[in-house]
Design goal:
There is one protein chain. This protein is mainly alpha-helical and 293 residues long. The protein has ten helices and two strands; from the N terminus they run H-H-H-H-H-E-E-H-H-H-H-H. The protein has one domain. Strands 1-2 form a two-stranded antiparallel sheet. A hairpin with a 5-residue loop joins strand 1 and strand 2. It is globular. Helix 1 crosses helix 3 and helix 2 runs antiparallel to helix 3.
Length: 293
């Protein structure tokens, strides 16, 4: 039984505790944590969930685990989007363009997952996470705002959130759309939803305010993850992960609301540092697993 990887029933008294109930509670707790932290940083939670799934189920195929992760990311992103919409932080016009650009990449990424053996997949996954961490840690503060003045073919947005805070920024819509194509592919291929790539790109390369980037990224993530999950459903991979997905999704629904509200009390710089440190930790762990076999 694959759930035995999460909790060891042999260590429990079967007359007092139902192992199936513990498995369900374990996945619910994991979903709650994933949803809260993923929504807080706008990453959809896939970068937290996917490494854990890789460690818990070493014998499952990358296609199966990415299908579970993407389905949970969709639920998390949809729930987070609802919360951020109430806060009036979602740039829907920009998000719609980015999502349309990302969907073809997401479909292709989901199709490519089944062609890679598990060990190769783990190494690629670990390297990508470490590369993202390095990018965030070495970039110069404030560099994301360079050359972002209105004009010169840039799109300008002005958003006033529910707290009355004004967010005004300018960016290249064309550059954002091109980035979204690659984000869609990598996120669906790796099963991480894409926010862990998209949020840094929106902040560092396009000049989005961090809180608008996290909120808008969730809207884009919901559409990308839905596209990737649909591919896995059609291919037949997802059917083997339905039960795990249900428990994780229930936890994520609650966690996403918690994460969205926590974002009101966390500084943008702290979100970026937390994201980078988390990338280093999970990247090293997955890379080690892939290299050592």
């Amino acid at each position: 039984m694959p759930y035995a990887n999460l909790l060891n029933p042999d260590m429990l008294n079967p007359d007092l505790i139902n192992p199936d109930l513990l498995h369900a509670l374990g996945f619910l707790t994991l979903g709650l944590t994933t949803g809260a932290f993923g929504t807080l940083i706008g990453a959809g939670g896939g970068f937290v969930l996917m490494p854990i799934l890789l460690l818990l189920f070493p014998n499952d195929s990358p296609a199966l685990l990415t299908s579970i992760s993407l389905a949970v990311v969709f639920v998390n992103a949809a729930s987070g989007t609802e919360a951020y919409t109430l806060m009036r932080r979602v740039d829907f016009k920009t998000g719609a363009v980015f999502a349309l650009a990302a969907v073809p990449g997401a479909v292709l990424g989901a199709l490519c997952t089944s062609f890679f053996p598990r060990r190769t997949f783990d190494i690629i996954f670990g390297v990508m996470l470490l590369a993202g961490a390095v990018f965030l840690l070495v970039r110069k503060p404030g560099s994301s705002r360079a050359a972002r003045q209105p004009g010169q073919g840039l799109t300008t947005r002005r958003i006033v959130d529910s707290a009355g805070e004004v967010h005004e920024y300018s960016f290249s819509m064309r550059t954002g759309a091109v980035l979204s194509v690659f984000v869609g592919f990598l996120s669906s291929f790796l099963g991480i939803g894409g926010g862990i790539i998209h949020v840094p790109a929106m902040v560092c390369l396009l000049g989005f305010p961090i809180h608008i980037a996290t909120a808008t990224s969730h809207f884009v993530l919901a559409i990308m993850a839905m596209a990737g999950t649909t591919v896995h459903i059609v291919s037949g991979e997802f059917v083997h992960g339905v039960h795990r997905t249900i428990y994780l999704a229930l936890g994520v629904l609650a966690g996403a609301q918690v994460g969205a509200h926590l974002s009101n009390h966390v500084r943008g710089s702290l979100i970026i540092r937390s994201l980078a440190l988390a990338l280093v930790f999970v990247g090293l762990r997955i890379l080690y697993t892939g290299i050592m076999g």
